[in-house]
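In the laboratory, one determines a bound structure by crystallizing the protein with its ligand and collecting diffraction data. In a computational setting the workflow is compressed into a single prediction: the sequence and the ligand go in, and a structural description comes out. We illustrate the idea with adenosine-5'-diphosphate.
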Amino acid sequence: METVVSGIRPTGNLHLGNYFGALKNFLKMQQEHHCFFFVADYHSLTTHPTPFDLHKNIKQVLVEYLACGLDPEKATIYIQSDVPETTELYLLLNMNAYMGELERCTSFKEKIKTQQNNVNAGLLTYPVLMAADVLLHRATKVPVGKDQEQHLEMMRTFANRFNRIYNVEYFPEPHAFNFGEALVKIPGLDGSTKMSKSENENSAIFLADEPAAIRKKVMRALTDEGPKTPNEKKPQAIENIFNLMSALSSKETYDHFNELYNTCQIRYGDMKKQLAEDAIKFTEPFRARISELMSDKEYLHKVVRMGAEKARESAGKTVREVREIIGFKSF
Ligand code: ADP
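The predicted complex, in structure-token form:
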């Protein structure tokens, strides 16, 4: 049995990238493994949300986790800030994380470009907080999308460095996990290679989107005039639409449009109409559950309380042992 940890920042609604990159694998793993899934609310503070937005987004992500099928009886589902042990491990790991390696991190370099007026220390030490999230439960598997590969590498560096400094074999190496298959990267509708809520809202299909919104966004997705010669290599924006179709539609549907592309007969309007309907069908059950759960205050309260209790038990044990290893001993 493996220990599995994953989390998503509450900076907006969950989109199909979050689902296929992180949630889908987690749903499969919760049956057999020791799983922790959290709402990464400390992480979201790097963008300075208002208290109102922060709370609203935490609730939304929690509800969407449950709507997707995360089961609080099988997995530990918790809000990161309910487990303050996270911050202690974060502080301790920060002492062994070096400026140079943090500054070289791709996500930091991207962030300082996109939020030039708010290059805070939290952005720099983001990978350390991520390492704390995972090492807190001494997890070995982290179901994430391809965008997180470098962060996983850094987690291993921090885990191994801690073990080396204190001459222990305490933290196991965490690895990104997708059932032996390549890590997933769901593209955006705007030609970008990664669907993301932070970059451009119209590039993402959200699990909570109404059918009309999905139709509108998909029909607006970037395309071109179409191929001129048979079997032409697909430009990025077109490749993206095909990749989305491969995730959402049946194989027959995908093959049908691929054949039309390869024989230069494709009409992107038809393809997008089909893709929109398949996206609506795919998200339909989530949408229904989301609105049901949103008003079930009592159940949400119970889930969060139960999750915090279980997560703190595991986190408390790790932090106690880490303190002991470091040399914080009682008198
Ligand atoms: P966002 O990039 O939308 O702000 P997060 O950074 O909070 O989302 O990502 C949360 C999880 O969802 C991570 O495990 C990440 O790998 C996964 N994820 C996000 N976007 C994608 C995507 N386009 N394709 C695959 N996985 C993704």
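The domain at 201-291 is CATH 1.10.240.10 (Tyrosyl-Transfer RNA Synthetase). Keep in mind that any predicted model is a hypothesis to be tested, not a measurement.
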